[in-house]
Specification:
Order of helices and strands: HHEHEHEHEEEEH
CATH superfamily of the largest domain: NADH Oxidase
CATH class of the largest domain: Alpha Beta
CATH topology of the largest domain: NADH Oxidase
CATH architecture of the largest domain: 3-Layer(aba) Sandwich
Strand order of the largest sheet: 1-2-4-3
Helix content: 25-40%
Strand content: 15-25%
Distance between the termini: 27 Å
Radius of gyration: 17 Å
Structural class: alpha+beta
Largest sheet: 4 strands, antiparallel
Length: 190
């Protein structure tokens, strides 16, 4: 059951922009992150939620989409995410977040999939631009932005080919994502 959820939880980069995500749903996703593991239980993560179309228009230009797709500037108007969750670190709680934001992002993505949404975790962020745009206080480090919405693309997992290339690609409007084999990533078993 968990494996099935993980297989369905794919990074989506094109959304049905017109289908809004309720703020209650965004809060429920953040609650999953809140309840997840935190290094030393410090819980230094903080969140900014946006389901507002005008605010989303301000957030979008600060994000970079799909680095391997060199000729693609990101989702077009109508395919942009209707919601965002920003994951921040509060340095007054802890100078380090270790892997907390990765755990939180995965919890949010799994929850989004279970709720019938899709998500994209974005770390290629123009942080200072976003900080100014949203008036984010200096005590917060911007770690990740999660785009949330209903998926408007087909995503297919592939096995990494013999040439070893791991770059994703688009073909016939299908987004292909190569994954290494289990035998390749397990070094040894005792």
């Amino acid at each position: 059951m968990l494996k099935e959820l993980i297989l369905k939880t794919r990074t989506c980069r094109r959304f049905v922009q017109a289908e809004k995500i309720p703020k209650t749903a965004l809060k429920e996703l953040v609650d999953l992150a809140r309840l997840s593991a935190s290094s030393a239980n410090l819980q230094p993560l903080r969140y900014i939620l946006s389901g507002d179309a005008q605010m989303n228009k301000k957030i979008f230009p600060a994000l970079a989409w799909a680095g391997y797709l060199k000729d693609w500037p990101g989702p077009a108007e109508g395919e942009r995410p209707p919601a965002y969750i920003l994951i921040l670190a509060d340095r007054t709680v802890s100078e380090k977040v270790n892997c907390d934001h990765g755990i939180a992002a995965q919890s949010i993505m799994l929850g989004a999939t279970e709720a019938g949404f899709a998500a994209c975790t974005i770390s290629a962020i123009k942080r200072e631009q976003l900080r100014k745009t949203l008036s984010i206080a200096e005590q917060y480090d911007i770690l990740l932005v999660l785009a949330i919405g209903h998926c408007a693309e087909t995503i297919k997992l592939e096995t990494v080919k013999e040439d070893g290339r791991i770059e994703y690609w688009r073909e016939n409007d299908v987004h292909h994502v190569p994954k290494r084999s289990l035998d390749e990533i397990i070094i040894t078993t005792f």
